[in-house]
Amino acid sequence: MTPASAPRSFLARVRDALGSLHPAERRLGEFVCDFPGELASYNAQELASLANVSKATVSRFVRRLGYASYEDARRHAREEQKTGSRLFLSLPGDDAPEAHMAANLEQAKANLDRTYAAIAPAEVDDMVRELLAAHRIWVVGFRAGHPFAAYLRWQLLQVHDGVVTLPGAGETLGEHLASVGDRDCAIVFGLRRRVSRMPQIVQSLAAAGARVLYVTDEGAEPEKAARWHFRCHTAAPGPLFNHVAVMSLCHLIAMRAIELAGGAARVRLRAIETLNDTLDEL
């Protein structure tokens, strides 16, 4: 399906209709634009109470959007919720800073526990040994995954001199994917919201012979082209995903790389520190 023929999203329908709505409907529309997850979660009466409008207003509102019923609108909103839009994570509620801090801390702990419960230490070591033996390590990340790709490359450079982050500024992936070979490894960060071509990118790397580690959130489907697939839990009690588990995984990979590289890693680390001292960079 081409972008021109793709059906409009739920939120696009609401935004397009705002200018033509009656005052009560517009108030409901603005509420839904700010907190679309409310419509996905509640029935018509509950939504009416939250937006301070009547149930009849809710019914008229969804019909103006082109839905046959409130359930049809809610079904569409739920489908859009699965894409990972931050707007669907926004909830009206208690703004007490102590409550928010406690909720975020507990969620971060839970995300770490759930992430590592599904990752076997032997699988991590198998992957790290492949990284150390690779001719090149390609680290790919878009959107939220880009800073993690840059961070992990920086750490892995301490033990491997052939680590490349993709994509670079002004570059296309094809300019680098043409150089991937069967002696290489690739680490791909596919965190919500993923770019639409992510499966093709993973498959292209694997088809070139690279052993691929795919790092995603917990909602990603299994990717058969990846040799390893680690899912990091990213749930959060607010409008942003919690990436504590992703950073922890990056740290684990870098630490195990240093430990498993042994003496070779220490030689390279000493050389790096000597040059840093010589150049007076730090």
TrEMBL record:
One Pfam assignment: SIS
Keyword tags: Glycolysis
GO biological process entries: glycolytic process
Chain ranges of the HTH rpiR-type domain: 8-84
Transmembrane feature ranges: none
InterPro entries: Homeodomain-like_sf, HTH_RpiR, RpiR-like, SIS_dom, SIS_dom_sf, WH-like_DNA-bd_sf
Domain of life: Bacteria
Molecular functions (GO terms): carbohydrate derivative binding; DNA binding; DNA-binding transcription factor activity
PANTHER family: GLUCOKINASE (PTHR30514), RPIR-FAMILY TRANSCRIPTIONAL REGULATOR (PTHR30514:SF18)
Protein name as it appears in the record: MurR/RpiR family transcriptional regulator
Organism, as annotated: Verticiella sediminum
